[in-house]
């Protein structure tokens, strides 16, 4: 993917059956009655018992970046509490083998992160899902784990610079389906912010937003994007581009949100018999998809201003921009692991082709976007 940086289980898919839920949006927060950062294993055991959650799914991200699961049918409430508190062993050589874990010493432990729990919106049997960290034989976070990597980077930034970095991902994706007689409106380069019936994927994209909110994933907005690829004689698939933008969160939580959003998108597309592609280029010569991140440095719990008011940058903002540009090659090693990433860069359709930064240039690797302000000039959102 091309990376560019800028400063419930009962969910009804029939709109006629839908009723607004009371605040908060997250199902488990409503059931438990407190914010997720205060949850305990006892809270989840109580919800599982009261609401008939039969399965537990320990979700985690492997070395290949794919979301994995280890499933349990708890024998009783004591067993459920044990799984949620201590986790379970797994074979790390099959999860992180290419990263250097030998089969002779491959045991890892999946340790649940209680605050990430949600009710699986796709499970046929009521299921409690929770994201897990990986721990090695020494009991410490596993160095090869993507979860460990992002948390270690976050910790290092706090320790060395006194900065807590908040981030949000802009998830661009293509929905593909067989062309039908009703598909008469799609037009190349005309899809940006289009509404139905000019786009076929609007209803699914809106379903994604509600499902993610019920899971407890904060969101900013969703909309259709510019890309549209017509069906061809040799390929009757039409492709339509959309985007979902997450809300700003501390870096580790922002990474979780991106992984879960892509999981939800793939599941809902699969239910419809459609394809969901995050490929940087679906077909050459057409608009591609990027994974752009907005970054917001926080110091002492407050966001840091970017501009000094005189066309200059505040020191923290300047350090962040400089660091992103300086370490761009290493970041690209994480963000551009598919050959098609570089095809998109070479097409140069609002994609960065050189390592640079700018205030307004949408083709810059790092840019400073405008933000909404209130009547007194203060940042909003």
Annotate the secondary structure layout.
Elements: E1 2-6, H1 27-32, H2 41-51, E2 55-61, E3 67-72, H3 77-86, E4 88-91, H4 92-96, E5 107-112, E6 118-119, E7 127-135, H5 146-161, E8 164-178, H6 202-215, E9 219-229, E10 237-246, E11 249-250, H7 251-271, E12 275-277, E13 290-299, E14 302-303, H8 315-326, H9 328-335, H10 339-347, E15 357-358, E16 366-367
Parallel strand pairs: 1-13, 1-16, 2-7, 15-16
Antiparallel strand pairs: 2-3, 4-5, 5-7, 6-7, 8-10, 8-11, 8-12, 8-13, 9-10, 13-14
Model description:
- The protein is 29% helix and 25% strand.
- It is of the alpha+beta class and 381 residues long.
- Helix 2 packs antiparallel against helix 3 and helix 6 packs across helix 7.
- 34% of the residues are buried.
- The longest helix has 21 residues.
- Strands 1, 8, 9, 10, 11, 12, 13, 14, 15 and 16 form a ten-stranded mixed beta sheet that branches.
- About 3% of the residues have low confidence.
């Amino acid at each position: 993917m091309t990376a560019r940086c800028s400063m419930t289980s009962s969910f009804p898919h029939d709109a006629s059956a839908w009723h607004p839920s009371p605040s908060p949006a997250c199902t488990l927060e409503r059931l438990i009655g407190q914010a997720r950062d205060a949850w305990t294993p006892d809270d989840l055991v109580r919800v599982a018992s009261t609401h008939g959650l039969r399965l537990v799914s320990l979700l985690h991200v492997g070395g290949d970046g794919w979301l994995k699961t280890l499933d349990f049918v708890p024998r009783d409430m004591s067993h459920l509490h044990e799984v949620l508190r201590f986790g379970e062993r797994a074979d790390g050589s099959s999860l992180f083998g290419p990263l250097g874990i030998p089969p002779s010493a491959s045991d890892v432990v999946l340790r649940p992160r209680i605050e990430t729990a949600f009710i699986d919106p796709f499970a046929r049997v009521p299921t409690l899902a929770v994201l897990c960290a990986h721990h090695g034989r020494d009991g410490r976070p596993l160095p090869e784990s993507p979860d460990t990597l992002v948390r270690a980077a976050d910790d290092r930034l706090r320790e060395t610079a006194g900065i807590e970095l908040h981030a949000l991902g802009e998830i661009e994706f293509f929905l593909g389906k067989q062309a039908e007689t009703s598909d008469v409106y799609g037009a190349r380069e005309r899809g940006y912010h289009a509404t139905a019936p000019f786009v076929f994927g609007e209803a699914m994209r809106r379903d994604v937003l509600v499902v993610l909110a019920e899971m407890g994933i904060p969101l900013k907005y969703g909309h259709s994007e510019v890309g549209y690829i017509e069906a061809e004689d040799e390929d009757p698939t039409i492709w339509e581009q959309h985007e979902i933008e997450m809300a700003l969160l501390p870096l580790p939580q922002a990474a979780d949100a991106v992984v879960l959003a892509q999981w939800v998108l793939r599941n809902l597309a699969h239910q419809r018999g459609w394809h969901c592609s995050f490929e940087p280029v679906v077909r050459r010569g057409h608009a591609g998809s990027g994974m752009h991140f907005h970054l917001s440095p926080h110091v002492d719990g407050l966001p840091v201003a970017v501009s000094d008011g005189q066309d200059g940058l505040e020191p923290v903002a300047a350090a962040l921009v400089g660091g992103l540009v300086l370490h761009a090659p290493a970041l690209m090693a994480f963000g551009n692991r598919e050959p098609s990433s570089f095809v998109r860069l070479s097409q140069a359709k609002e994609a960065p082709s050189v390592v640079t930064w700018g205030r307004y240039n949408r083709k810059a690797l790092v840019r400073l976007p405008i933000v909404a302000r209130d009547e007194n000039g203060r940042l909003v959102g």
